Amino acid sequence: MKIDPKSSADLSAQIAKAIRDSIIAGDLIVDERLPSEAELAEQFDVSRSTVREALKRLAAQSLIRTQRGAFGGAFVNRLSYPDAYGQQITTSTLLLSMNDVSFDTACEARYALERSCAPLSAERRTADHLATMRAEIFRQQQPGLTDEAFCASDVAFHRALVDGADNPVLSYQLAGAVEAMQPLMNMITFTARSREAIVALHTRIADAIEAGEGSDACEGLSQLERYTVELARSVMAKRASREAG
Amino acid sequence: MKIDPKSSADLSAQIAKAIRDSIIAGDLIVDERLPSEAELAEQFDVSRSTVREALKRLAAQSLIRTQRGAFGGAFVNRLSYPDAYGQQITTSTLLLSMNDVSFDTACEARYALERSCAPLSAERRTADHLATMRAEIFRQQQPGLTDEAFCASDVAFHRALVDGADNPVLSYQLAGAVEAMQPLMNMITFTARSREAIVALHTRIADAIEAGEGSDACEGLSQLERYTVELARSVMAKRASREAG
DNA sequence: AGAATTCATTTGTCAGACATTTAAAAGTCT
DNA sequence: AGACTTTTAAATGTCTGACAAATGAATTCT
Q1: Gap from A67 CA to D24 C1', in Å?
Q2: What confidence score (pLDDT) does residue B245 get?
């Protein structure tokens, strides 16, 4: 682990990179303890504050965890799926909100990815996944539901569909795509009629998953995509005309 | 933006969270300047070092950038696609390497995701994407190629396929899945015969993309997935028997 | 032996200082 | 007046030294 004093980058960034590379390369293994801040400071020939800033950078990426007290210190973290989900969702959400990605583009990506899970889910889903999907469909039919709650239930439905594929890597990848859409979906007002249409498509998808018909589920997802895009378009148009008039 | 002094979490983590939430909520918009470190220290009633540690956490997530000098400071970063790629790849790579995800699981996820791009790519790919795919196929046929270079070319081929879908959100999502597989792929030795088989499948996929036949491309990807899994299995078996004998 | 206490180590936080960078502002020359 | 140079103020980057708080190990006491 060496740093280049001539480099223009911040020392703390260089140190963070050096340690990060060691972790990725496997030189530092999971649960291994890093040298104490004082030792690192000496090794890199910088002050303790600089080392601390480097460690905070790594902590922000869930690469290490720290523990106080004797025999405490910084330990290489096993990146857990929940941690990875969290980062994936944060990144995806910001990416969408900051780069004025169109609703259509985000929607297309989301449903394309979901369709990649559908055949696997139709084959492997447990009774539990199916029960979750049915329960969320039931919830979506409740009259008093707010738009936000409807969206949240929608996310839960799709999550169960994705998790049914029983591939944690897929679930992790999809978490970002599905959840990051939520702020965009929340801009839509769901009328009683549009909810009915969505529930009908959800039911069709759940039926296909239950029957083990992956391609049917894909077709249902495609219809849901088309309907969602159309719905967003009409809501936006209505909003625009109201503002103009 | 408030922090809870009673909370057990580190102050710098709390402050980072407060600022992060403000960014996600849109209270702080892109390119907006945060108060100076000294001002933030006063606002949160902590020392400047604590504020700095919080800011480094945010910088590690590419949420802010800092600039020195008068009229410098910390600015809300527009999360660019390259930044997002980078984080996605780091996270995915570590997730795979630290959670002993099986080769089959990772492979299944990767090809399932790629199949979701194939129909779009068949429809929209430019001549440029196609030329890249052909060029990489050509490179893969060169005799002197090392296994690592072969893998890298493989990644470039699949990237072109994915980028052909012309959906930046999909490209971003797939970057992680494809690149994170590379360390696993690098464990495989590619014999002349296996390279030949892979090149044949790549050619078939490229032909399908060129012809606008998305389902053909999917079929090619499925065959490639099966072949890759089989190849990995035989390589691993050979390695195990050599160690045993 | 078990409980309480002390102790050493390590991270978390603070305060103050100086170095470095940077762009605006002021000054100077043509 | 305009172009170039110098000054200056503000901000981040780094260092030093100190103390607080946590924590597990070692020690002491009952």
Answers
A1: 12
A2: 64
Global confidence as pTM: 0.84
Q: What ipTM was reported for this prediction?
A: 0.84
Q: Is B154 exposed, middle or buried (0-12, 13-18, 19+ CB in 10 A)?
A: buried
CB A140 within 8 A of CB A198: yes
Q: How distant is C1' of D7 from CA of B69, in Å? A: 15
Query: pLDDT higher for A165 or A245?
Result: A165
Tell me if B179 sits within 8 A of B92, measured CB to CB. yes
Residues in chain A closer than 8 A to B24 (CB atoms)? 90, 93-94, 97
One-letter identity of residue A22:
S
**Which bases along strand D come within 7 Å of a protein CB atom?**
8-18, 21-25
pLDDT tens digits along B198-234: 999 999 999 999 999 999 999 999 999 999 999 999 9
Query: Which CATH code fits A11-76?
Result: 1.10.10.10
The fourth-level CATH superfamily of domain B81-244 is: GntR ligand-binding domain-like (1.20.120.530)
Domain locations in chain B as residue ranges = 11-76, 81-244
Q: Note whether B115 contacts A: Cβ–Cβ < 8 A.
A: yes
The count of other CB atoms within 10 Å of the CB of residue B62 is: 18
Mean of all residue pLDDT scores within chain A = 92
